[in-house]
Amino acid sequence: MKVAVTGAESFVGRALIPHLLRRGAEVIGIDTVKPSFAGGVAIDVRNPALADHLPENADAIVHLAAVSREPDCASDPRLAFDVNVTGTANVIAAARRRGVRQVVFASSEWVYGDVSNDAIQNEETVIDPGRVRNEYAASKLAGEMALNVAGRRGLPAGTVLRFGIIYGPRPANWAAVEALLNMVRTKDEVAVGSLATARRFIHVDDIASGIVAAIGQSGFDIFNLAGAELISLKRVIESSCAVTGRSPRIVERDPTAVSIRNPVSDKASRVLGWTPAVTIDKGIAEVAGYFDQLETSK
Fold first, then answer.
1. H/E/C letters for each residue in 106-139?
2. SS3 breakdown of the chain: % helix, strand, coil, rounded to 5?
3. Hey, which bits of the chain come out as E strands?
4. Which one of 12, 61, 218, 284 is least enclosed by Cβ atoms within 10 Å?
5. Domains of the chain as residue ranges with CATH
């Protein structure tokens, strides 16, 4: 199996590549800086010469490269749409030119837009563009549409993966899980809006295994990749306290400000044979150990 990965040096890219290598894949990593493993290429996904760095007739290109933090997209929308939309169009064009069999596109649960707390989001959920409220989500939805149209224009296969809220061991750019764990570790008071706010948090290794499971799909299709269960902020804090042995004071600023997003991954389980393997308690324990290592290495 021969696979190219854009955004190879990203959080997800660094988790994905070992999964691919363990399966015996030949991996070509692409990023704006030269990837830190053999077979890496330093090139921007918007560069017209991108196709020259893709292997002929590769099995797949996994397109992770993006401006992926919502605040960064909001502060520079022009750059966000240039990278996330124009870059995706260029990846698709390069894949077609080189005969790549499949483009796997990293999208996000945020394309579902504003949702009610009791709603479930699956791949059949109708997306109302009027409820897509930030630049990041809009750019990802545009990328999905570009891939869908490319399939109608002869691209052999396009697979959209809508990621849930990813967490894992990383030094910065934290999601709620890492941020709350760090507050429990280091502060005497942890303040949140509503403890009942919940997400299907998913460990980065589960995202990586889901991407691998999606390679080889035909036609155009969409899959949610999200955690196995809804996890409240209260549960994240409780697990963090159990792992660290600390008991900071918990302040709930507004118990009524509940926000629940519930993208389910039943289709990925049924079609891809994929299910998340890392429980929230196991994941938090791993991240806590990573934070401890960072401190001892200073």
1. EEEHHHHCCCCCCCCECCCCCCCHHHCCCHHHHH
2. 45, 20, 35
3. 2-6, 26-31, 40-42, 60-63, 103-108, 157-163, 166-167, 189-192, 198-199, 202-203, 219-225, 231-232, 249-252
4. 218
5. 2-166+202-227+263-276 (3.40.50.720)
